[in-house]
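(Fold this chain)
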Amino acid sequence: MKLELLSPAKNLEFGREAINHGADALYIGAPAFGARAAATNSLSDVETLVNYAHLYGSKVFAAVNTLLFDDELEPAVRMIRNLYNMGVDALIVQDLGLLECDLPPIELHASTQCHNASIERIKFLESAGFKRIILARETSLDQMQDIRRNTTVDLEAFIHGALCVSYSGQCYMSQYLNDRSGNRGCCSQPCRSSYDLVTSDGRLLIKEKHLLSLKDFNASQHIDSMICAGISSFKIEGRLKDLSYVKNITAYYRQLLDSMMNDGRKPASSGKCTFLFTPDVDKTFNRGYTDYFLTQRHPMASLETQKSLGKQVGKVSTVGRYTLAVSGNEEFSNGDGLCFFDANGRLQGFLVNAVQGRTLTPNRMPDIKIGDSLWRNNDQQFEKQLQNRSAERKIGLRLLFCATKQGFCLDLTDEDGISVSQSIDAEHIVSDKPTHTSNTIVRQLAKLGDTPFSALTVTDATEGRYFLPAAILNQLRRTAIAHLQAKRIAHFHPADCPRHDQLLPYPETTLDYRANIVNQKSETFYRRHGVQSIERGLEQTHDYNNHALMTTKYCIRYELGCCLQGKSQSRPQVPLQPSDRLLLRNNGQLFRLEFDCSQCLMRIYKA
C-alpha cells in the first residue's frame, strides 16, 4: 500500500518547498475556477511545478472545484485540456456538470465539497468514474472503515489545518451575507465572526463569542488508525497559509508517516528528506487543536478568539513596572510575539523587545497579572530557520564508470530502477597511479551538488587503469544527470485515465438546493442517472427562505454542555432550557438554530 502525503501549494514557490519537505503530491489552483480564488496560478507556473514534482515521482492535482455557471463550462474545459496536456495528474472537481463535457482522459477526484459523507453517495461517484473521493472532514474512523469495506475507490482524508464548521459544499452563509459564495471560491468566513447567543424571547445568553469558529484539525495521533481504516492519501489544509506553515507541517507529517512504514507500506514518491530544523506543529498558525469527529464528539470550538494562539509557553510568574517573568522551560528571543487572555476574556498580544533569562521586556507593558497563561504565536528563531533553506530531498543513485572501445561510459540507476547510459569518446591514457586515479574518478563522479540526487554507490569498473581529466569527468556526469532528470519527468507523466460511467441510478430521485446544481450540464447529468425533480442551487436562485445557510455536525448546545440528548461532556455554561429556541445575532442580523438530534446535526437559517 502506497501512502501519499498531500500538501497545499499556494503558488510555484510554495509547491517546490512542499516537495522539498516531503510531499508525495500537491494540490494547486489553476488560473480560474478553484475554491480558493485568492490562490490562482498561471498555466506556465503549474507546468513548471508539474515537472519539478514528477522529478521526484510526486504528483500535482489541479483544483477546479467551484460551481460553474453555463457560460463558464466551455472556458473551464479549455483550461482543463491545457492542464491535461502539461501532465497534471488529476483534477479535483465539485461540479458534476463537467462530467457531461468533452473532458480529456484525466483522472478525476471528487472534492470534499461534493458532500462525500455517505456510502451511497461515494459508491455513486465511484460508478460515475471518479478515481478518488475526498472524504468529508466529519467522517469518523468507523465510517472510514465502513466506506472502505463497501467501495474500491481511493480514499483521501484531511489530517491537519483549519476546519469549516459547516459540511463542505453545504454552507451558504457567506453568499447570503456578502454575495460571496464559498462554493465559488470567495468565502468571506462568517464562521470566524463573533456572535451573541440569544433566546427567541430576548434573553442574552452569551455576548460576542466566536460561537461558530472551530479549533484547527490535528489527526496526528490517529494516522496509523486511518491507514488501517483504508485511507491512502493524507491531506494538509492550507492553500492560503504562509510558507513557514507549508514547510513545517509537511515536514512534521513526513516524519510521522515515515515512522509508520513497513513491508506493506511505502511512500508514494521518491527521495529521502533531510530537515535542517525540528518540525513542531504548535509553532505555526493554529487556533488550538481538535481531532474533530475521528473518534468521539467532544468540545471543539475556539470560542474566545478566531486568531492563532501558537504554542503555550508558560505562565506569568512576576510582573514589574516594565518587565514580566515567565515560568517554564521555554527560551525567548527579541521579536517574539506573545499573547494572553485579559480579564474580559479577550485575546491581547505584545512583542518582546528584550530578553534576560526568564525576564521579558515587552514593547508596551500589557495589562497582565501573575498566573496568566502565555502563548507564543510568533517564534522569531523558528521563523528565521524556515526563512532560509530548511530541507533537502535527494533521490538515491548508483553510478558505474567503465571503459568502452571508443572511450568511457557512465551508467546511472536511481532508486526507482530508472537508468541512463552516457558515453564519451576519449583516448585511453594508461595511468601510472591506478589507485590514485580511481579515487579521483569516484570523488569527481560523486559530486552531485545541488542536483536532486545523492550517490548510494560509485563504482569504477576500470579500477583506475586510465587517466581522464576532471573536466571531462564532470561533463560526463552533468550530461548523464540531465538525461536522467528528463527521463524521470517523462517516466512519471500520468497515463491516460478514460472515464467509464456505469450509469447507475442516483440514490435519490428528488434533489433540492443542497445538490448545488447551477448549470444545464449538471442537471442533465443527474437526470441521466434517474433524478426526476431538481431544485436549482442558491448561487443561482438566491432563495434563502427556509433553506439552511449552514448544516453542521458541530452543535452549539453540545459545546455549551446543554445537549438535548444529555451527551455533553462538560457542565452547562449557560442557563439554557430544552424548550428554549436559540438564535445567533451579529451586526443586527439574526439566525435561527435548529437541532436535528436524530442525525446529530445543527442547521442555521436566516431568522
The longest helix spans residues 470-491.
